[in-house]
Specification:
This protein is an alpha/beta fold. The chain folds into three domains: 139 residues, NadA-like (Rossmann fold), CATH 3.40.50; 87 residues, NadA-like (Rossmann fold, 3-Layer(aba) Sandwich); 78 residues, 3-Layer(aba) Sandwich (Rossmann fold), CATH 3.40.50.10800. It is built from 15 helices and twelve strands. A four-stranded parallel β-sheet has the order 2-1-3-4, sandwiched between helices. A four-stranded parallel β-sheet has the order 6-5-7-8, sandwiched between helices. The model has no long low-confidence stretch (mean pLDDT 95). Pathway: Cofactor biosynthesis; NAD(+) biosynthesis; quinolinate from iminoaspartate: step 1/1.
Length: 347
């Protein structure tokens, strides 16, 4: 069906209502009726293709707002989207995020065709360690329970005992019977876990690999101090992938979903978001009354997702866009993820 002028105008107005408050745009765009008209034919086509192909689009909070609000069916952090992938009955899952997330969707929904808009959308954490390297670490620490952060490849999950997210890592690690934990791949999150266990009085030895997030490892306490001096009453919100030094002086440290909730429910004149800029874009849509000062950083991998690539992945996915996994590896990785669902605190 060819979009008419009336349908394009209605779609542009729908997009404008959602995007008009977004200032944190990596391309410097101002969302007005004209810019919404430019993308309206594309969002209309993508939404039509979803219906025709029985597809669902999962969108991480860090991708562009026109993807999240223009064509996304579900938006959120890794844990929420993994739940949605697990529940999905769709024939096709388009994962607008990064490759490890699409792999997780395939692990949880093996009968679906899972596609990623850009196969180059990696992750500095997931790319920092291989399954073979995890096996070597397990030989060095045979008595350790292997805990992998969800920002890891399917082969790393297949070598791990339990998967965690930034929202449930503290509770899951605290409740594991093992005293020695081999944590992969995030060194900084492991340091924050170590500090939290000490704070809780839980005796754990945390051994980690050496990966870091290219977004979150760049924030500094000096940046926070400078911002507090300029903006009285500022609330600083950080992710557990930040350094322990940053986490120690932030007002709130939590997962993407937890940060979103904290800002929405906290009264403060200003917020400094020490995370990926996409979350600020979401908050500008969903909590336009909040004020954000500079500080967020762009994830180059998340920003590889575009409406054009989403459309192409729906129309005719190329072989490299289709997520395929060896069935034995998938089943082993599934046990790791299902263990997380079993151990995660119930909401």
């Amino acid at each position: 069906m060819i979009a008419t002028d009336d349908t394009i105008e209605a779609e542009a107005e729908r997009l404008l209502r959602l995007l008009m408050h977004v200032d944190c745009d990596p391309h410097g765009r101002t969302w007005n009726l004209a810019t919404c008209r430019e993308i309206a034919p594309l969002t209309l086509e993508i939404n039509r293709l979803k219906r025709e192909k029985d597809a669902v689009i999962l969108t991480h909070s860090y991708v562009e707002p026109e993807i999240i609000y223009g064509v996304g069916d579900f938006k959120g952090d890794s844990y929420y989207l993994s739940e949605k992938a697990r529940e999905s009955k769709a024939k096709v899952i388009v994962f607008a995020g990064v490759v490890f997330m699409a792999e997780t969707a395939k692990i949880l929904s093996p009968n679906a065709l899972v596609v990623v808009p850009d196969r180059g959308s990696g992750c500095s954490l997931a790319d920092s360690i291989t399954g073979e390297e995890v096996r070597r670490l397990k030989q060095l620490y045979p008595d350790a329970t292997v805990v992998c952060y969800i920002n890891s490849t399917a082969e790393v999950k297949a070598e791990s005992d339990v998967c965690v997210t930034s929202g449930n890592v503290y509770d899951i690690v605290a409740n594991l019977p093992a005293k020695r934990i081999l944590f992969v791949p995030d060194r900084l999150m492991a340091q924050n876990v170590r500090a939290e266990m000490k704070k809780r009085g839980v005796a754990k030895e945390i051994i980690s690999s050496d990966g870091t997030c290219v977004v979150h490892d760049e924030f500094t306490p000096a940046q926070i101090a400078e911002a507090r001096a300029q903006f009285p009453g500022l609330k600083v919100v950080a992710h557990p992938e930040c350094t322990p030094e940053v986490a120690a002086v932030a007002d709130f440290v939590g997962s993407t979903g937890a940060m979103l909730s904290y800002v929405k429910t906290t009264n403060a004149p200003y917020f400094l978001m020490l995370t990926e800029c996409g979350l600020v874009g979401r908050l500008e849509v969903e909590a336009p009354e909040k004020n954000f000062i500079g500080g967020c950083r762009l994830c180059p991998y998340m920003k590889m997702n575009t409406l054009e690539k989403v459309r192409q992945a729906l129309v005719a996915p190329r072989p490299e866009q289709i997520i395929t996994l060896d069935e034995g590896l998938r089943r082993r990785a599934l046990r790791c993820i299902e263990r997380m669902f079993e151990l995660a605190p119930k909401k």
